[in-house]
Specification:
With 110 residues, the protein is of the alpha+beta class. It has one domain (18-103). The chain has four helices and six strands; from the N terminus they run βαββααββαβ. The protein has helices at 10-13, 36-45, 50-57, 100-103, and strands at 6-9, 16-21, 26-32, 65-69, 74-80, 106-109. The protein has a four-stranded antiparallel beta sheet with strand order 2-3-5-4. Strands 1-6 form a two-stranded antiparallel sheet. The longest helix has 10 residues, at 36-45. The protein starts with 5 loop residues before the first strand and ends with a strand. The relative contact order is 0.30.
Length: 110
Amino acid sequence: MEKGSDMAKLKDLATIIRSKNAGAFQLTMDIIFGDKETYEKVKQTGAISRKLFATLYKVPENEVEFVEYDQAYAFKGTIPRWVASGDLKDSDIYGAQQHAPLLDVEIFIE
């Protein structure tokens, strides 16, 4: 690794990583940073993207809604739910536990 470069887990960089329902048929994940400098460093890596959400949640990339909110130092990814919220097969009715795969994503910061 080059001097001045470091690998960090997303859970150690972001202030908030959360998930919730975006209606009965979608889940949304928010990744929010506490300061502009960290947000911009992570944004420059391109590591948080539509492709990341598609890969982690095993959905087609074209079904991922992805937004960078520069004013809030945040990223948002929205994906289709596997089953509708409240369905008999639903194990997380509020979608509040679905952010876990994001926690250990490694980001290479220079």
